[in-house]
Design goal:
Strand content: under 5%
Shape: globular
Largest sheet: none
Helix content: over 70%
Length: about 250
């Protein structure tokens, strides 16, 4: 009986090391985005704009936005089956979405924000402009979007995490790439295309302040939280449906 029970639980050593790498990856990611302004720019005779100290806050905000939208939401889905996902020892995918899952995700987002704050202060002290409250509002909206992506990935199960991660990367990097490609090839200026990226939303809010135009307000402050809420609702409904089917007695 003891051996059977041991096979159905996650060892304490596994639980203890289930997510320390998450915090390490977060810190390394943000430091990597600060490295050009901290080390590369001062050592070059003719620094590029992205290596100048004034670009440090924008670079760090861009790294935080990309990490928050395209990496962090999918950690639970990418963990091996033997690692806990906030529920029972071996919860079936598609049935772990609930209030506890949402609460733990929100707490984890707050911890990541607290870890990022000293690096943001460092980037701010190096140079450049940083609008604290607009950046905080836009960052909170992206956190809501990220939690919604996490709920959708956990609730839909199957290959949904991979598809959602690909979609998040496309949304984060696609609009800036398309904007610069159109500008370089056709000479056209399409600012609305650039604003369609969550990365640009956070960078612009943190460096330009509160948006005045309606489209800028929607793109930087309202669009991504609404997307996250919609995805989260889909994930919760799918998870509840899967849980009801799992409890249904076999015919």
């Amino acid at each position: 009986m003891a051996r059977a029970d041991a096979g159905n639980t996650v060892p304490a050593a596994v639980r203890a090391r289930s997510r320390p790498w998450v915090l390490v990856a977060w810190c390394v990611w943000l430091l990597a985005w600060l490295t050009p302004a901290l080390l590369v720019g001062p050592a070059t005779a003719d620094p590029r704009p992205w290596t100048e100290p004034a670009s440090a806050p924008a670079a760090l905000l861009a790294g935080a936005a990309l990490f928050l939208v395209a990496a962090w939401p999918f950690w639970p889905a990418l963990l091996p089956n033997g690692f806990p996902r906030g529920g029972s020892a071996h919860p079936p995918r598609g049935t772990t979405v609930g209030a506890r899952f949402i609460g733990l995700s929100a707490v984890e987002a707050l911890i990541l924000a607290a870890l990022a704050a000293p690096m943001l202060v460092t980037a701010w002290s190096i140079g450049g402009r940083l609008e604290v409250w607009p950046a905080s509002a836009a960052g909170a909206g992206l956190a809501v979007c990220a939690i919604g992506l996490r709920l959708a990935a956990a609730g839909l199960g199957g290959g949904a995490p991979r598809r959602l991660m690909f979609g998040a990367l496309l949304l984060a990097g696609g609009p800036p790439a398309a904007y610069y490609a159109v500008a370089e090839t056709l000479g056209a200026d399409l600012p609305w295309l650039l604003e369609a990226s969550p990365v640009v939303a956070l960078v612009e809010a943190g460096t330009a302040g509160w948006p005045e135009e309606t489209w800028h307000q929607v793109a930087r402050l309202w669009l991504w939280p609404m997307v996250g809420v919609g995805l989260g609702v889909v994930g919760v409904l799918k998870a509840r449906h899967a849980a009801r089917r799992a409890r249904r007695p076999a015919a």
